[in-house]
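Bench log, entry 3. Co-assembly request; chain sequences pasted below exactly as received.
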Amino acid sequence: EPEVTQTPSHQVTQMGQEVILRCVPISNHLYFYWYRQILGQKVEFLVSFYNNEISEKSEIFDDQFSVERPDGSNFTLKIRSTKLEDSAMYFCASSEASGQGGYEQYFGPGTRLTVT
Amino acid sequence: RKEVEQDPGPFNVPEGATVAFNCTYSNSASQSFFWYRQDCRKEPKLLMSVYSSGNEDGRFTAQLNRASQYISLLIRDSKLSDSATYLCVAASGTYKYIFGTGTRLKVLA
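Structure output for the full assembly:
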């Protein structure tokens, strides 16, 4: 069964450093997403991406964040200058362009980001 | 008011019991609804989509009431492996998911 993969599984970084989180969406999916979940809190939408453009972003997704699809398979989230409050689990998700069920999103296993 | 609201639980039920979870959403423009399950420190996994006509998948039944902006999930004959957090999701716009905080279920032997 196809699945979304993410690397690394755990990233530890110092405050102020840049990090890049990587995702490989399901191969025939055209919509890509990043979410985050701070420990003990709900899953929060960050950004959606389609046709090499951001479709929608949340208030959390400020100028410190960027996304890119550098090639035909990878989808990345970059945080330019990490803050302590960026510590969270970051989930990548993808969905098909069309079909029944309202564009179900499939999530990767997540990258746990710890900012010290 | 929270966009998607769920009772956090925990719901502790014996094996074999029937348990129901409810969820309300505030955005009447929400177009699609889902239930996901999340095990501790893992990713959300799709359990089922929720349709206006209601839908069933084995022991799981989901219902949507658009007039009341209310979604439900019923689990029959609970198994130990059903222990998890159940996340209610409302989607709108460019399929941006709004998650509830989740309802914790613990099935006891």
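Chain B has a mean pLDDT of 93. The CA atoms of residues 48 and 57 of chain B lie 8 Å apart.
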